[in-house]
Specification:
Order of helices and strands: EEEEEEEEEEEEEEEEE
Largest sheet: 11 strands, parallel
Number of helices: 0
Distance between the termini: 26 Å
Strand content: over 45%
Helix content: under 10%
Radius of gyration: 14 Å
Number of domains: 1
Number of strands: 17
Shape: globular
C-alpha cells in the first residue's frame, strides 16, 4: 500500500572522538559520530543516506539524498530527497530540501529553501508528532 524506497546500508562510520579535516565523499551510507571540518558529499548514485548523530559536528557543506541530523552542522545542507531533523539538531546555514521532517527542539539558523525541482510543486513539510 505505502511503498518506501529501501534505504542503502550504512557502510562507513566516523566514530565519536575522531576528528577529520578535509572533504569526504562516500557511497551508500555514512554515519558520523565524530567531527569533520570539510564538505561531506555522497557520490553520484541515487539513494544515499547520511546520519549526523547527536555527538557529531560538521563544519562545511553537506550533500546527500537522505540526510538525518541530530548533531551540529555549520554550513549549508543539501538533501536531494529527504531531510530529517531530530530534536537535538542544530544547523547554522541554509537548508535545501525536497521533503522535510522536523522534530520539536531542532534549530535552523538559516533559510529553508525548496530544491529547484520543487519550485513548481508544493514542497512536502511534515511536522513530527510529539511523543
Amino acid at each position: 500500500m505505502f511503498s518506501k524506497k529501501k534505504q542503502p546500508a550504512i557502510r562507513s562510520l566516523i566514530a565519536d572522538g575522531n576528528h577529520i579535516e578535509g572533504n569526504i565523499q562516500f557511497t551508500d551510507g555514512l554515519r558520523i559520530d565524530g567531527s569533520i571540518v570539510g564538505d561531506v558529499r555522497s557520490g553520484e548514485e541515487k539513494n544515499s543516506i547520511l546520519v549526523i548523530s547527536e555527538t557529531a559536528s560538521v563544519v562545511g557543506e553537506v550533500h546527500a539524498d537522505h540526510v538525518i541530523v541530530n548533531g551540529t552542522v555549520r554550513g549549508p545542507v543539501y538533501a536531494r530527497s529527504m531531510l530529517e531533523l531530530q530534536p537535538k539538531a542544530r544547523i547554522e546555514g541554509d537548508v535545501y530540501y525536497t521533503a522535510l521532517e522536523m522534530h520539536q527542539g531542532a534549530i535552523i539558523a538559516g533559510l529553508l529553501r525548496p530544491t529547484p525541482s520543487m519550485m513548481d510543486d508544493k514542497p512536502t513539510l511534515k511536522l513530527a508528532a510529539n511523543n
